[in-house]
Amino acid sequence: MTVRPHLLKAMARAVAFSGVLFALTTAAQAETVVALPGAECKEVRATLELYVPIAPGFRQLEMPFPENDEKIQGTLCRLVAVGTGVHVENERIRTLQDMQGYVKGALVEAGWKATAQTERFKGKSKHGRHVFALTRNNAICVTTIQVGMVPGVETPRGAMEDGTIYLGSLKPHQREWWVAVDCFHF
Predict the structure, then answer these.
(1) Could you give the percent of the chain with pLDDT greater than 90?
(2) Cα-Cα-Cα-Cα dihedral of 94, 99, 105, 111, to 10°?
(3) CA-to-CA distance for 159 and 150, rounded, in angstroms?
(4) Backbone angles phi, psi at 35, to 5 degrees
(5) Which of 87, 109, 143, 184 is the most exposed place for a label (fewest CB within 10 A)?
(6) Secondary structure (H, E, C), 65-113
(7) pLDDT interval class at 70 (50, 70, 90)
(8) pLDDT tens, position by position, 11-67
């Protein structure tokens, strides 16, 4: 049996097209994740409460994965601490970078590390917000730290310029902190 060259080219194009189609349909499918089991999440919580010098401590919740551009679905274990600067700030935590250093340091101390996979969760979307992720044992913890102005507080003179609020110009009771560590298995 003789195969004609134009038929070979057509078959090669069909195989290539089916490969591209498979890649596109696979990429379009949602990735499903599962929350860290309660005991593992509790271990992360204990680590954060040991090494991150804030009060109040972290609450532990299990919740659906938030809507996202990565098309990830499922559940996650959220460790969250919320409070004004009066509750969160102290002699060791004065800035967003201080908080990031303590949270990241606590997780690194417990064996979590940054990888190429965790880089896709990294972000610094706006003033007063940092996002980073670390991995350990086929799990990822994505940390979001945000500091902003307490809702309803009148902006003090000198704290705003060109529409930007300078958080350092606010008093501690005028700043609101939100720290969330979302952990899940792939």
Answers:
(1) 45
(2) 160
(3) 13
(4) -60, 150
(5) 109
(6) CCCCCCCEEEEEEEEEEEEEHHHHCCCCCCCHHHHHHHHHHHHHHCCCE
(7) confident
(8) 333 333 333 323 333 344 568 999 999 999 999 999 999 999 998 789 999 999 988
What does the block give as tokens for 55? 């009060």
Residue 80, both tokens: 């969250």
Q: Which residues 6+ apart lie within 8 Å of 47 measured at CB?
A: 106, 107, 109, 110
Between helices 96-109 and 38-51, what is the axis angle to 10°? 130
Tokens found for residue 81: 């601490």
pLDDT of 11 reads 35
How much is the CA Rg of the chain, to the nearest whole Å? 23
| Percentage of the chain modeled with pLDDT above 70 | 81
